[in-house]
Design brief:
Alpha-Beta Plaits, two-stranded antiparallel ribbon, alpha+beta, 240 residues, Pseudouridine synthase, single chain
Length: 240
């Protein structure tokens, strides 16, 4: 059962947290430092700012445990737009290609989704943190520098189509993936599009489990803490 972090007087050595949309994984640590004091905090697996869901946090001596959990399988719930691709592979990027009112039947989508199970060699997003010549790919992308897209071995251990609906003028597949370490869900979304011969990108992304740990047992960040952090961030940006 979820509880709010403001019910704690101090942080335990191991925390399950439900990261909200709009802040980075490191922003979460900044918020915790403000309310629980400066202490060593680490996490097992970054979530993009626009993604939500489970972060495993190690505090103090608990950071040693985190290093042991990095390789655990992760489960994601995602809505994939079929009919639109972007520069970033999600809704935040510039539109690259669209195909309005794609002619697909639910059975086609279902077959394509279940064909994703297994070991795949896929390109990673140019907006990922993977480094090339010591520099993260997303920095090249932001500078407009073209680099060769690296491929990675990714494994989909379980996959299921949960829903399929229209979001005019496109269609959306709601898919649950259980994947190995090093799997990029943006890459899976784009690959699904290729298998259906349509452009595709992520609409939403939520991590629901890491190994045996689930989102149902996580803490949430109080709304007032989030609002205070976002206002502080905005002021700093305005001040330059």
């Amino acid at each position: 059962m979820k509880k709010s972090l403001n019910t704690l007087t101090s942080l335990p050595s191991f925390v399950l947290l439900d990261k909200p949309r709009g802040i980075s994984s490191f922003d979460v640590i900044r918020i915790l430092h403000k309310y629980f004091g400066k202490q060593k905090i680490g996490h097992a697996g970054t979530l993009d700012p626009q993604a939500t869901g489970l972060l495993l946090l190690g505090v103090g001596s608990g950071t040693k445990k985190i290093t042991e959990l990095v390789g655990l399988d992760k489960t994601y719930l995602t809505d994939i737009v079929l009919g639109k691709s972007t520069t970033t592979g999600d809704v935040e990027g510039k539109v690259v290609e669209t195909l309005e009112y794609p002619d697909m039947k639910e059975r086609q989508v279902e077959d394509a989704v279940y064909s994703m199970k297994g070991v795949l060699e896929l390109p990673v997003s140019l907006y990922s943190a993977i480094k090339k010549n010591g520099k993260p790919l997303y920095k090249y992308a932001r500078e407009g520098v073209l680099v060769e897209t690296p491929f990675r071995t990714m494994e989909v251990k379980e996959v299921s189509l949960l829903d399929w609906y229209k979001k005019e003028p496109f269609q959306v597949a709601r898919v649950r993936f259980r994947v190995s370490k090093g799997t990029y869900v943006r890459s899976l979304a784009e690959e699904l599009g290729k298998r259906l011969s349509v452009p595709a990108s992520l609409l939403t992304l939520r991590r629901t489990s890491v190994g045996m740990y689930t989102i149902e047992d996580s803490y949430t960040i109080p709304d007032e803490w989030l609002q205070d952090f976002m206002q502080h961030k905005k002021r700093k940006k305005e001040e330059g």
